[in-house]
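Saturday, quiet lab. Running sequence design on the structure tokens for the scaffold JK sent over.
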């Protein structure tokens, strides 16, 4: 996500940090490079200009240039301005404060990912907010559009409005509202028709549906990979219907970031959600602060902790903790860890969200090390017998050849996995010698995570305060 922009900005700020003192010209030269980087990332010219002017004005102040770490101060100012450009510190939540069924109308051009986003949003409301959603397709133009939403409903476990052939969009909307009331639905999502371009017929249809359904939220779905075109589409729709927010799809593949960085400033509409993959749970609320941190290579620890909380089963974590306390760690435990990494988005996703891991991610790419590595490791462990997994020391040359052949890998791959397991096992034994996890905590005075690492959960230079809450749970 935003890799090209992140790399360019990282180079500029590395130069600034490498200099002990800065003068006004140094700052202005750096900002000129930042401006070029933003324009290459397809950020709208007025937005880039306003951003650079604001950062420069704050950065050339005497308090910055005469500070002990002027380079870091400039980076902080850039971070603050990026957050502001992306929509401010507050996350733009859905407004569901109305008598049910609350109507959410999904609008956008054909091919932007509108139908899939409707299903993703419905699943998120059902799984994470405990709502009872229903979906209705109003797209009578695109072949099999209504059937597509029906199939997505079956996959996500969300109710969909039965299809009545030949019915027009306004009539479908009216029937959907009546059906939602009868079934005590909390949120009704209307997937409207799209076109290949903005036209009057499309707008008239949307206005008619809006008049019938009185949506609490009208969300525009746009493809972030189209860059400035996505912003232009948002402006066109915003001029015709009362948009309440934007969903940016394919954010995971957006190496430039022009759409995300320009959207709020140009349209005045907040980005409420970001689509981050093809899976039906690959949608997340848009956090301006976290996105700014990732653009500047500072990582996104909060999202990692949240992903871990969602994907790691409590019983697995407790079982591993007990085994760690005893200094035990076999290949079954390693396999569980590898699967959890895959569930959290894989190596590339995790490396991109870890602070300071930019270079590690580049090294992984250079070594052709991707998520296939995790699959290969799992295949190697899967080709072992239950006895071998529980007692890796049994793995002699003959067994290694058999496992390599069974998993479609080389013997050296089996050796690498066993070496990795040995190193992790040694670490577990060290923890046991220190008295287990509790003993490890007592080394720092027994005051828990705050006492062990006071800089981690607060104070200047520590992680954001909301991480502290997650770690203390």
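Result came back. Writing it out in full:
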């Amino acid at each position: 996500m935003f890799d090209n922009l992140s790399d360019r900005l990282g180079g500029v700020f590395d130069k600034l940090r490498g200099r002990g003192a800065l003068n006004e010209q140094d700052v202005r030269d750096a900002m000129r490079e930042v401006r070029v980087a933003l324009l290459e990332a397809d950020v709208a010219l007025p937005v880039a200009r306003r951003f650079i002017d604001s950062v420069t004005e704050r950065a050339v102040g005497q308090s910055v240039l005469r500070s002990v770490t002027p380079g870091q101060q400039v980076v902080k100012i850039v971070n603050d301005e990026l957050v502001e450009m992306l929509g401010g510190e507050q996350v733009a939540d859905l407004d569901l404060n109305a008598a049910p069924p609350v109507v959410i109308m999904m609008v956008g051009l054909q091919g932007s990912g509108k139908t899939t986003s409707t299903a993703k949003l419905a699943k998120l409301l059902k799984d994470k907010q405990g709502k009872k959603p229903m979906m209705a397709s109003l797209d009578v133009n695109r072949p099999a559009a209504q059937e597509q939403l029906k199939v997505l409903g079956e996959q996500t476990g969300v109710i969909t409005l039965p299809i009545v052939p030949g019915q027009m969009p306004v009539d479908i909307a009216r029937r959907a509202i009546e059906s939602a009331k009868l079934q005590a639905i909390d949120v009704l999502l209307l997937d409207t028709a799209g076109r290949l371009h903005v036209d009057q017929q499309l707008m008239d249809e949307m206005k008619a549906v809006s008049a019938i359904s009185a949506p609490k939220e009208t969300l525009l779905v746009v493809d972030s990979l189209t860059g400035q075109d996505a912003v232009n589409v948002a402006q066109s729709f915003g001029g015709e219907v009362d948009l309440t927010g934007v969903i940016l799809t394919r954010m995971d593949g957006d190496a430039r970031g022009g759409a995300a960085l320009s959207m709020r400033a140009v349209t005045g509409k907040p980005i409420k959600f970001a689509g981050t993959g093809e899976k039906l749970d690959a949608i997340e609320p848009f956090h301006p602060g976290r996105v700014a941190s990732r653009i500047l290579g500072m990582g996104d620890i909060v999202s990692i902790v949240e992903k871990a909380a969602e994907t790691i089963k409590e019983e697995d974590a407790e079982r591993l903790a007990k085994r760690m306390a005893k200094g035990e760690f076999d290949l079954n435990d390693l396999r569980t860890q590898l699967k959890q990494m895959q569930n959290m988005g894989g190596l590339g996703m995790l490396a991109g969200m870890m602070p300071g891991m930019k270079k590690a991610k580049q090294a992984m790419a250079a070594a052709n090390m991707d998520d296939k590595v995790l699959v290969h490791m799992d295949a190697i462990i899967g080709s072992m017998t239950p006895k071998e997994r529980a007692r890796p020391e049994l793995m002699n040359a003959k067994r290694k050849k058999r496992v390599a052949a069974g998993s479609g890998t080389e013997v050296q791959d089996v050796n690498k996995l066993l070496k990795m397991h040995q190193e992790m096992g040694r670490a577990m034994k060290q923890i046991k010698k220190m008295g287990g996890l509790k003993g490890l905590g007592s080394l720092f005075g027994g005051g828990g995570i705050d006492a062990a690492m006071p800089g981690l959960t607060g104070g200047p230079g520590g992680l954001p305060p909301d991480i502290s809450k997650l770690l203390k749970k």
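Notes for JK: Residues 268 and 334 are 48 Å apart (CA to CA). The first strand starts at residue 102 and ends at 107. Ask whether to fix the surface positions before the next round.
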